[in-house]
Amino acid sequence: MTDQRLVDALERIAAALERRAPPSASSADLDAADAFVWHADAARLAPVPRVNRVDIGLLRGVDRQRDILLDNTSRFAEGFPANNALLWGARGMGKSSLVKSVHAAVNARRTGALALVEIHREDIPTLPQLLSILRGSARRFVLFCDDLSFEQEDAAYKSLKAVLEGGVEGRPDNVVFYATSNRRHLMQRDMIENERATAIHPGEAIEEKVSLSDRFGLWLGFHVCDQDTFFAMIDGYAAALGLDVAPERLRAEAVEWSVTRGARSGRVAWQFIQDLAGRLGRRIG
To answer: Which domain holds residue 60?
Structure first.
C-alpha cells in the first residue's frame, strides 16, 4: 500500500469513528430545562418540560425527612457543601416524590438554581461520562437514581463507590447524588450473606459491600405509616384538589381502598384520590 493510500484509509477510518461517536452535551443544553433524563446509549441529556411531581405541602408523615433533605438541598443550591442522600425504606412512602418536590421547592425560591438529572439504575456504570459533562458547567445538579439496588454478581456498585467519594477526581463540587431504595445497604441480604460464606476474609468482603451506603452522608428512613397518617394524607389531597366529600365517607372509602390493597402508604392514598376524583368527574393537574 502506498503512503497516499494509507493516508486515505486512515482518514476514512477516522471519519467513520467520528460519525459513530455520540454527540456531547453542550453547556447551552444544560440551561434548556430544570430537569433532564440521562440517555447513556446516546450520551445525551434529554430536557423534561414538565416533571411528574406533587407539591411539597401535600406530603404527609415525612416531616423530619422533608426538613432535612430540604435544608441539605438549599445549602447546596446556595453554593455551600452538602451531602449525598440515600432515602430508603417502605414502598410508596414518598421517597422519590420527596426528591422531586424538594427540587421544585428550592427552585421556587431561587429560579433555575438547580437542575434535576435522572439516571437509570442500569446506566450507573456511565456515571463518570455524565459527570465529565456536568463538571464544566456553572450550574448545580442533583443526580437522582430511583429504586437503586444491586443484585448478585452485579459489580456496578463499584463504579458508584468510586464516583461518590473514592475516585481520583471525586464528585464535582456542582453535583450531589440522591438515590432511593427499599434496601438500607442497597444489597440483597442473601447477597451479603453469600459473601460472608464464600470469602476468604468474610469481614473484608462484607465491608466492601456495605461501604457503598456509607458514601451517602444522609440516610433518611421511611417507614410504613399508621392509620392517622394515612387519613392525614387523604384529607390533604382531598382539600388541595377541592373534592367535596363528607369526612366520614372519605375516610370510610379510604379504609376500604387500603384494605383491598393490603397496605397504607402515600402511593395508596394518591391512587385512592385518583379513583375518587374520577368518580366525581374532577380533573387532576
So the answer is: 29-222
